[in-house]
Amino acid sequence: MKTLPRELPASLSAVSGRADVRPGSPLPLGTQETRGGVNFALFGRDATRVRLELFDHPEDAAPAQQIDLDPARNRTGDIWHVWVEGIGTGQLYAYRVDGPYRPSDGHRFNFNRLLLDPCATAITRAPPWDFAAARGFDPSAPEQDLAPSTRDNSRSVPKCVFVNEPFDWGEDRPPRHPWSETVIYETHVRGFTIHPTSGVARPGTYRGLVEKIPYLKDLGVTAVELMPVQEFNEDSLTRRNPQTGQLLKNYWGYDPVVFCAPRGSYSSAEGPGRQHREFKELVRAFHGAGIEVLLDVVFTHTAEGNELGPTLTFRGIDNAIFYTLAGDNRYYQDFTGTGNAVDANHPVVRDHILAALRYWIVEMRVDGFRFDLASVLGRDGTGKLLADAPILERIAEDPILRDVKMIAEAWDVAGAYEVGSFSGRRWAEWNDRFRDDVRRFWRGDDGMLGSFASRICGSADVYTVSGKGPECSINYVTCHDGFTLNDLVSYRDKHNEANGDNNRDGPDANFGENNGTEGATTDRRIETVRKGQIKNFVLTLLISRGVPMLLGGDEFRRTQGGNNNAYCQDNETSWYDWSNLERHGDICRFTRGMIAFRRAHPVLSAEHFYTGTEILWFGPDGGPPDWFDPKQNQVACLIQEDERNALCSMFNAAPDEIDFRLPPVPAGRQWYRTVDTARESPQDLFAAGEEPLWEAPRAYHLGPRSSAILLVR
Question: What is the CATH architecture assignment of 611-712?
Fold first, then answer.
């Protein structure tokens, strides 16, 4: 972690002990520069005392100035506020909040805890964050949380950074791709370029990601979905890798500390708040390339964990309002597997979440969001799932958010599963039914024919009941959570030993197949099968109605060594080894070609389900498929593009080759071969206009475990 420079903006020179202090305004919450100073506003309904502390340096334990807010002058309703003269961008600050410490009533105020502003838009990158100091007691002695800690943690926690720098957006315009033209690429900001083989000047940063825009544009994706960039603590874990002895890192970051601050360690620039500008530069650059920026956001839980966790912000400001508490109020409801759940449908918390979403759209100009464990957002203060959750309706109808993409992970760890029925049509959803059914079909499982066909057609069986269309289905075979595509065809079982949990973490049902041996191999026969299966998955994903999402690195066979839960592996397990791009350039070429194929044939991505006249399914003999034969795993479909043009896709998940009888073509038209996953590159895929004539118009010979596409032209 880099050390911040001690030089501060000139605007801070007048602060210590000499700044004019006035009552200020209750709105807006957070900070706002106005009339030569900054207004600070903090929600605190049950607080009895609030102190604002201003710091000169991130490592300082003692503030340069502390301002106690008078309840009579500095409080309006539940909002504490103050205006301070003579400070500006770069000012470091934090709060102390006092009130009752009664866990049985849900209150955990502690004036010894230095707290972050829930509305902070940047926090400092140093000193290293000590969660043990933020707890103030030993979690192995659980009764200690019944009394407040007397330990002051101000030296060991980051401070908030006030940021209000002008930024030149130039001619920036959000691309606003319709769902029918969207291809999503999910990636981790740091992992994408931190490996020495990435070849970028600023590895592991926002700017490093910007350096790879030409690659992404050439690949053909229209949106990047960034794993969490909301500020989190990478040093929150206490377990060690049993294989190396090294402390594990919080690599994924699905436990934010505040909702509006971009991750500081992903910035290549020194200085307080510089990550703010660098993130904007990233968005501007991606927009200039016609690529949207989607954020994977977490509003369902925070890094404060359960009753034994650290006090960082929400818990110390108003624990009873921000979190969903258990019946005795000392404990937390946990629908997320992290120890707590945000009470997203409390009106105060609802407004806070909406303000954060608006901030990312208006100030940072992102193009949409993927909501982690979104079903938690549909629960009330007791944990009950609501039919029409207020926060989901507010998000869907908010005038600022109307044109941005909204994607739900429509389940949680407490049993909620709402794929196909999550809120209204405004919400798209990660379709794990697509993932599992496509995996199982290509693995050769019995009884998957009908489900496989439904996934290709947009999952009407999943979405029509709720009135949604195929554009609401975010189709994926792999994502950050689980096997990579290479590992899906190289491992039958997960291998998470390095996570330090005896291989108990991560899902057991992966529907993977090692195709002959577990893990990496030099056996050419096994490698040929694996390569063909990877191409089958890519082809299936990119011809299916719905919105395709690729896991970053799958296009050049990124591996995690069979680890299907690499959340704590900030190392070569998770990093993108770009030398694979040369070794597996044929897979990247195939992926690029299939994205281009999808773009060239809009019928594949239309935002409605197929009608009976648009698609015809048939078996190898040319007749209707036997949908009810559990052993049947060979099928084809003819898709009409218009009166004279059509696509014929054939799928063979069996270990034996097969001949498909082809439908007749109109007079004067012929079959052309465009894709065949059984063939070696470059014969496996042809660009538009370069497809060779298929000279056996009555049948097509399809190899084992392969797929092919013919065109009528």
Answer: Sandwich (2.60)
